[in-house]
Amino acid sequence: MYEALLELDQVRINFSASGSLILNIILGFIMFGVALDIRPREFREIVEKPKALIGGLLAQMFFLPAVTFLLIILFHKWLTPTVAMGMILVAACPGGNISNFICNYAKGKIELSVTMTAMTTVAAILTTPLNFAFWGRMYTNYLSKHAADELLQPLTIDPVQMFFTVFILLGIPLVLGMTCAHFLPILSKKIAPWFQKGSILMFAAMIVIAFSSNLEIFLNYIGYIALIVLVHNALAFATGYFTGRAFGVKPKERRAISIEVGIQNSGLGLALLFNPKIFPAELAIGGMLLVTAWWGIWHIVAGLTLGTYWHNKPIKEIES
User: Fold this and answer.
1) Which of 214, 209, 229 is nearest to 296 (CA)?
2) Which of 86, 127, 146, 259 has the lowest tally of Cβ within 10 angstroms?
């Protein structure tokens, strides 16, 4: 497994500037749809009784990256550097917007889910670059003491450039969406469900665009990546759920936190990876790309599976 992944680390994905632009536009539409659901007045209770929100934000922005780092260290002999860095990048991203749809389906506390999505997305302007830089540096420092130097990839990232990229990709669509929701509430309410459902198709389009010229690479290595993402994603759902238990929040809130932490905005990760100002074209980051792309597919499958289980089980029956 390690040898195959090491070969993957050297793969350079073919991707054009026009493809990168389309990727960013799609992500902008997705984030605009997220903002249409943000109405501060509806979340007064969440702010007035913030225990669940605090626990959820800690789970999303601190515990998940930390647990990801521990997972990588535990299995570092089987994980190549760029695969590990891809896991760190995904963990550094904010919650994905389809978490709101899945949370509602799973009979979780939807207000908490939407509030977490909104707050982690806005905070991602700072937390994504900082988390990636911090935990990435922790990993490379650890690896340099336990592996040969040739295994290390030159993944020195400019946090300032990443900050501006995240601000443009997330900040502008969020401001436009929230403005639309405020001044055109009736229209926003009508079109929000279409954006929510369409986001799944939009993300699928992102994957197709990203790998349309690299299908053979994707198929050759997806088996190894699928196993890694399955374990990482399951751990993310568990991190959210057990953080909720530790904070003593209600079962509906635990469901919301679990789903929110298990559904990451991997579309942002892809957009960052295909930005040559952050990750220059000469870098071999095939492992990062496949981990990020497959996460975006798998977390939908896993989220809907978990959501279906909770949807069909009364809360008292399984979570008393």
Assistant:
1) 229
2) 146
